[in-house]
Design goal:
The chain has helices at 5-8, 13-19, 30-65, 70-73, 312-321, 333-346; strands at residues 88-94, 100-105, 111-116, 120-125, 131-136, 142-147, 153-158, 162-167, 178-183, 189-194, 199-204, 209-213, 218-223, 230-234, 244-249, 253-258, 264-269, 275-280, 286-291, 295-300, 305-311, 356-361, 367-372, 376-381, 386-391, 398-403, 410-414, 418-423. By secondary structure, the chain is of the alpha+beta class. It has a four-stranded antiparallel sheet, with no helix packed on it. The protein has a four-stranded antiparallel sheet with strand order 2-3-4-5, with no helix packed on it. The protein has a four-stranded antiparallel sheet with strand order 6-7-8-9, with no helix packed on it.
Length: 427
Amino acid sequence: MNHSPGLSAIPTVEQFCHANEKDAGQPFSSNDINALEDELQKKIDLARQETKHLYNQIDKIKSRAHDANLLDMSKNVQPLNTNRINLNPTLVLRGHNNKVSDFRWSSDSRSILSASQDGFMLLWDTATGLKKNAIPLDSQWVLTCAMSPSGNLVASAGLNNNCTIYRVPRDSKVQQNVVSIFKGHTGYISDIAFTDNAHVVTASGDMTCAYWDITKAKRVREYADHLGDVLAMSLPPPGTKNHQFASCGSDGYAFVWDTRSANVSQTFFISDSDVNTIQFFKDGNSIVTGSDDGVIRMFDLRSDCPVATYSLVDSMKRAKNQPGYASTSPRADDDVFRETSRRSTISDSYLDNQGVVSLDFSGSGRLMYSCYTDFGCVVWDVLKTEIVGKLEGHSNRESGVRASPDGLAVCTGSWDSTMKIWSPGYM
């Protein structure tokens, strides 16, 4: 694609002044300045028109490949039973004294790392619910945490603009063993992930992502195409696309990157609102995004097109006409539906204000778990784009949801300072 000739032809102020200079040493009049402004504005308008035309051509080319969506292709697949979702809260992890900011499963699903603004990261045994280790943080204003594939290193980051790497104590004790502190971001760090045992990727409010080498204690590469705060990032599942990661931000865009290049691989315009969370699908060939408009969108990376949309508002409107989505809380299913209907009746804008804050998939990929601002954790049928359940039980806003790597459990974290582990009833 050729770049717009209008942008390259815009003169600088000095060029315009020299080209239109009347008398040497004479200051320019207000008419000259107005002429300069008019000339520049015409060039800018022309470049915008040409850019819009090029974007329209790109959309037409993409539409040729977008000949179907996920719902159309799965019309012969039987829907899931909406009477009951087979997930029960088996463990409640209590130990933090402030809201849980973030948490991560270990690669073997035997541990969970949680970070809270009480100034600690805790490592939990997922079989017993007991604490294994406690790591005091260098800053209590933590927003995110991560665990290396080996489980020997953990990381925290947040409002202090730094990413701190800690070594996990071998014995069960409270210990702070700092390996590295990465300084380089000029804004808060919103998300972090280990690509392997020696590298991490960070996303920041300074509109960049960065790739860091732990052994060399330095930044290897910066990714700077976002035009707003980078709010979240995601790595593909292990064994799928090892060098990729995806990011999203307040500019309404999602980008797919290759860690080996500073240039963006794929670009998706998501929404005019903030895009708060992003997640790879289980096969690594698709991404899903959740934004402040309450809509979850799935994009196929191979066709470069959207394939599914999950709208809380639309789904609840259908549920009001055909009540039946279930809750795994001790309350009756009918009570849950009545409560949802009551809220929708009292405030028409209630569901419109439910931004998506966290996303993850079940082991099979058929279920998608999504946390909303105040609505809690909803379970979606990925193929049918329908709500089939709801995970309830926290007394405050739910900050995130993550499925275990082995697919046998789901963990939700909350501002009520607790986490719940949900497991299938037969377990």
